[in-house]
């Protein structure tokens, strides 16, 4: 049996988490485009072509309540980035596609540089990569990103989002946790080095006779 080294394990973890995140995102988007209702602005009896007619603003998604006044499914096509930001379609498609590709390359580079014991960072990088690729697939194939999760409090709405946005946010949050852990680790290592140096007489302890 071939033994998997700790360095190889982080790549296996990254691949599994990234692929599962991507699969969950794309599966839910396929469901949303096929199952969620849409309506023609001018003639409700006319059939809408998804996503073209939504992008052209001939049709819009119809809200399907999950939790009344708080959570709906509502199909939306977003030409911008996560949560509807930067929604200028022509500019966004090119620039955000490049950003998505750069993000994935960056995640792979960070994974390569990471230590095998940085488990939180490995999860973070995999989630960010999976989410970035999920939205990148939509942007390249359709020119827009499929969103369908609507959180709101009565009439006040949070921008519509998708599974890729969720895993991206979780991934970035885990990155901040890793940064805090690494900061504490560096402080502990520095304190340990100073303690050893003092014990060896390499650092003079002031205030002692």
| Structure annotation, total helices | 5
Largest sheet: 4 strands, antiparallel
Computed Rg: 24 Å
Coarse shape: elongated
Q: Give unreliable regions as ranges.
A: none
Overall pLDDT score: 87
Structural class: alpha+beta
Order of helices and strands: HEHEEEHHEEH
Count of extended strands: 6
Strand order of the largest sheet: 3-4-5-6
- Please estimate the helix content: 55-70%
Task: Give the strand content.
Answer: 5-15%
What does this structure look like?
The chain has 209 residues and is an alpha+beta fold. It has one domain (6-199). 57% of the residues lie in helices and 14% in strands. The strands form two sheets. Strands 3-4-5-6 form a four-stranded antiparallel beta sheet. A hairpin with a 2-residue loop joins strand 5 (145-153) and strand 6 (156-157). Helix 1 (6-35) runs parallel beside helix 4 (119-142) and helix 4 (119-142) runs antiparallel to helix 5 (163-199). The model has no long low-confidence stretch (mean pLDDT 87).
What descriptors fit this protein?
209 residues; alpha+beta; four-stranded antiparallel beta sheet; two-stranded antiparallel sheet; 6 strands; elongated
Tell me briefly what this model is.
The protein has five helices and six strands. With 209 residues, it is of the alpha+beta class.
What's the SSE blueprint?
Elements: H1 6-35, E1 38-40, H2 52-55, E2 59-61, E3 64-67, E4 71-78, H3 89-113, H4 119-142, E5 145-153, E6 156-157, H5 163-199
Helix pairs in contact: 1-4, 3-4, 4-5
């Amino acid at each position: 049996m071939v033994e998997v080294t700790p360095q190889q394990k982080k790549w296996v973890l990254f691949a599994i988490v990234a692929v599962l995140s991507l699969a969950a995102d794309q599966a839910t988007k396929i469901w949303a485009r096929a199952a969620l209702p849409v309506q023609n602005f001018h003639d409700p009896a006319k059939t809408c072509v998804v996503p073209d007619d939504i992008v052209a603003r001939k049709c819009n998604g119809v809200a399907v309540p999950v939790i009344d006044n708080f959570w709906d499914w509502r199909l939306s096509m977003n030409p911008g980035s996560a949560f509807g930001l930067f929604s200028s379609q022509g500019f966004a498609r090119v620039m955000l596609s490049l950003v998505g590709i750069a993000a994935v390359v960056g995640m792979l580079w960070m994974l390569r540089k990471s230590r095998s014991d940085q488990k939180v960072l490995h999860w973070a990088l995999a989630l960010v990569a999976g989410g970035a690729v999920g939205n990148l697939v939509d942007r390249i194939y359709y020119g827009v990103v499929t969103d369908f999760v609507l959180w709101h409090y009565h009439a006040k709405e949070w921008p519509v989002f998708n599974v890729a946005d969720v895993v991206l946010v979780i991934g970035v949050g885990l990155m901040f946790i890793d940064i805090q852990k690494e900061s504490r680790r560096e402080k502990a290592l520095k304190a340990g080095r100073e303690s050893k140096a003092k014990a060896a007489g390499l650092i003079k302890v002031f205030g002692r006779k």
